[in-house]
Amino acid sequence: MMAIREGYVTVTKAAQMLGVVRNTVRSWGAEGRIPEYRHPVNNYRLYKRTDLERLLRKFERSVTTGSAKQNKKKPR
Question: What's the whole-model pTM score?
Answer without folding.
Answer: 0.74
